[in-house]
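Example 3.2
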Amino acid sequence: MIHPVTGRRIVKSWNADIFIPFAKATYKDIEDKLAEKLFEDYPVFEIYHDIGHRNDWAGRSASEGMSEYVKDECDATSAPKGAKAPYGGRWVVNGGWLDTRRFLDTIQRYLQGNNSFHKGILTYEEVEFGEDFITWGGYKASKIIDCSGVNAISSPIQSSSV
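Structure, written as tokens:
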């Protein structure tokens, strides 16, 4: 989920003005290339917890750069159907939601169709780094995607010039 407003302090997400347009354009390009709908623009209704929370939102939403993301306020009677919002809430826009399961499945099918996908356990000792390529297990590639999570930070692939 992409949400342009974050935290208890109700602040604009870090680099939202850069990351959100980039993410939306990237997902649109991928959708066009793969002929699949994967990303939805998705407004979020932020529910006020109490009057103090409402006041916090009112103050923060007036901050510079927030008007692009924080929109209409709703009282308890005009909240979206099904929302339990006795103190009301406010709409946050310009975010979105990626269907990650569908995205990963679609990307995997695409890469497999182009003979560009191999799933396996990689030990870095088996990787050979060339001037402009990487070889591993009989595969040669100009790029490799390391999906080892937080462990990727200590990956020798990060420090390679490839």
